[in-house]
Specification:
By secondary structure, the chain is mainly beta. It has 2 domains: about 80 residues, SH3 type barrels, CATH 2.30.30.830; about 110 residues, Cathepsin D, subunit A, domain 1. It is built from 3 helices and 18 strands. The strands form 4 sheets. Strands 10, 11, 12, 13, 14, 15 and 16 form a 7-stranded mixed beta sheet that branches. Strands 3-2-1-7-8 form a 5-stranded antiparallel beta sheet, with no helix packed on it. Strands 4-5-6 form a 3-stranded antiparallel beta sheet, with no helix packed on it. It starts with a helix and ends with a strand. The N terminus is likely disordered. One of its GO terms (biological process) is proteolysis. It comes from Methylobacillus methanolivorans.
Length: about 210
């Protein structure tokens, strides 16, 4: 018994050093449902550890705070993160997203290092973002090619640009075509076909796995 008690504190951190993907699929006050490394959904109460060494620090209906090797991360409903070592982002060729209650797949990612919210949209021919987000990502969109695009509200002005890099939980795409719309629409970045065509998309229930092809 004493041997096992001595091993347990050492074992849990060592498990967390391996690459681990955490997906939040349910949120409640004091509890969160998460999928770890593509396994079955697991419910953790605040303060509990998963077998992989992931601790749920706190949870509400809006977000969960997890801790790995002393490093804390905040995740919202449907968000995922890849962890390796001291809670760092891990490089990966794939990412799994989980649909929200409306059936949409959202993800937190980066464009040119700027943190932005994405929505998977197979109906968009390219990545589409508003001009405010483009400025935040340090994209000189007005040096791009002016184009007119058809939207639900009619014809709008936009600029065709090339994004240096897009990152979703470790999955990285370089030199991706995009459209920047003048104004505040769309409210989130649409992850359209200029990016999705470079990934294999696999649906399994509410899970959507994107795997980089090139």
């Amino acid at each position: 018994m004493r041997t096992w008690m001595w091993l347990l504190p050492c074992l849990m951190p060592s498990l967390a050093w391996a690459e681990t993907q955490v997906n939040i699929v349910g949120l409640f006050q004091g509890k969160a449902i998460m999928v770890i490394n593509g396994g079955k959904p697991r419910t953790l109460a605040a303060g509990e550890f998963s077998p992989e060494g992931i601790r749920l620090v706190a949870a509400s209906s809006d977000k969960a705070v997890i801790e790995v090797d002393g490093v804390r991360r905040e995740l919202g409903m449907g968000q995922a993160i890849a962890l390796s070592g001291k809670g760092a982002m891990a490089g990966s060729s794939s990412v799994t997203l989980y649909a929200d209650s409306t059936g949409h797949h959202f993800a937190d990612g980066y464009i040119n290092g700027a943190s932005l919210r994405f929505l998977v949209d197979t109906g968009a021919s390219a990545i589409v973002m508003n001009s405010g987000d483009a400025k935040y990502a340090k994209i000189d969109y007005k040096s791009g090619t002016p184009v007119s695009v058809q939207t639900a509200n009619g014809v709008a002005n936009a600029y065709k640009v090339v994004i240096g890099n897009v990152r979703l939980n470790g999955l990285i795409l370089n030199q991706v075509d995009a459209l920047v719309m003048e104004g505040g629409s769309p409210a989130v970045v649409l992850l359209g076909m200029s990016a999705l065509n470079r990934m294999e998309m696999k649906r399994d229930g509410i899970a959507l796995t994107l795997t980089k092809k090139y």
